[in-house]
Amino acid sequence: MHEVYLDYNGSAPLDPRVVETMIPALQSGIGNASSVHRFGQRQAAAVDDARERVAALVEASPSGVVFCAGATEANNLALIGLAEGAPAERNRIVISAVEHASVREPAQWLHEQGKAKVDVVGVTQGGFVELDELDSLLGPDVLAVSVMAANSETGVLNPLDEVAERTASVGAVFHCDATQMLGRLPLSLGDVGIDLLSMSGHKICGPGGVGALVATRHSLARLRPVIHGGGHERGLRSGSLNVVGIGGLGMAAELVAEERDAESARVRALRDRLLNGLRAELAGVHENGDPTQRLPNTASVRFEGADAEAVVFNMDPVAVSTGSACSSGAIEPSHVLLAMGLSRDEAFESVRFSLGRFTTEAEIDAAIRQAVKAVDYVRAMTGSDD
Ligand code: PMP
To answer: What is the SS3 assignment for 338?
Structure first.
């Protein structure tokens, strides 16, 4: 059986057209983009070009794009950078319970260091941030609200307009980790009212290790750097620029802007084919998260009575993932699924399928067959074939 890759939310494959633009840059890109000589200036022009493409993807100003090493760094810069620049009377950050570790951990760190107080707002059973609870947590001491656009495990889309409106009403900054949404659905910084947006190259068929924090002018001024040095990227992210990676990110962003809508419709049909196939062949198949407001490429599926780690292992060479994480030597269930009200056992039965640009119908059919085999096998081995 051929390998099938259905873990696009983990990391999407590089588009060959992105590779094509990166190879000449690797081969002949000479000079530091900060240098005044013609070699440096050519590099700077390549960075400027990418800055425009990235800004265009989210309808932002190019001057608000801060290139960095990916969404983890962008999230750290957003939260820590805001806290470092905050007036004393604004010392509280509100994050949602289903944020990625790269939001939760810097928030926790700020809390432990006494640099900010952190409140966590819960989510509904469908996976949406609880707006009433958010209301109760907001006040004039709130510095920032961090709510992701689309969840990486379930694909559930948050009500960003409502979050933005509430955040603005107390004068706080709205940070949105849009890492998973960007390649798949349109998102405009200004239309929604997002102040700071994180994104990553390898989730949009671009290179890994490169991403950006995209800021409005007003919120850019409220940030302080986390990485100090030569003052690159308006003093917010020092370090000679990764010109090849940034160029690849720019190309990936442009391809998304051009192809996203058609691609999403195609991928949505494949994802639905997958779900229908699984439901037709297996009993006890449940979807996690609201099925209407979610990314077109993602399905979080619970196979009753089948341990997800075992299912994933037995699905090889079809690559899918579980949301559970290994922490201090023990496997922990997904914090996202627990926050949505699933029990530990239910969370441990959940498998994430995430599709993308290069997924084919034949691959989906192969994945259905392999999943059915794996789930039947795991249920039989553990005596649970209900
Ligand atoms: N945020 C979200 C929602 C993600 O899914 C990921 C990647 N799993 C990240 C942040 C981190 O991105 P990066 O790998 O670029 O650091």
So the answer is: helix
3-state secondary structure of 178: coil
**Contact between residue 156 and residue 105 where contact means Cβ atoms under 8 Å apart:** no
Distance CA 250, CA 242 (A): 12
Assess whether pLDDT exceeds 60 at residue 386. no
Token code pair at residue 151? 């969840």
Strand-pairing partners, residue 327, are: 330
Q: Of the residues 76, 98, 200, which should be mutated to test ligand 1's pocket, given the most ligand atoms within 8 Å of the CB?
A: 200
Partners of residue 214 on adjacent β-strands: 65, 197
Please state, in angstroms and rounded to a whole number, the distance separating the CA atoms of residues 107 and 96. 11
Provide the whole-model pTM.
Answer: 0.97
Q: How many Cβ atoms from other residues are within 10 Å of residue 161's Cβ?
A: 11
Reported as a single tens digit per residue, the pLDDT across 302-317 is 999 999 999 999 999 9
Q: What is the 3-state secondary structure (H, E, C) of 193-240?
A: CCCEEEEEHHHCCCCCCCEEEEECHHHHCCCCCCECCCCCCCCCECCC
Question: What's the maximum distance between 2 C-alpha atoms anywhere in the chain?
Answer: 71
* Token representation of residue 55: 């800004």
DSSP β-bridge partners for residue 272:
none
Is there a contact between 54 and 102 (Cβ–Cβ < 8 Å)? Answer: no
Sheet strands (E) in 230-337:
285-287, 298-303, 318-319, 321-322, 325-327, 330-332
**Which residue among 54, 75, 100, 295 is best mutated to probe the pocket of ligand 1, counting the most ligand atoms within 8 A of its Cβ?**
100
In the chain, % of residues over pLDDT 90: 94
Structure tokens at 384: 């649970």
| C-alpha torsion 184→46→72→175, nearest 10 | -70
Q: Among all residues, which ones are annotated catalytic?
A: 326
Q: What is the pLDDT of residue 330?
A: 73
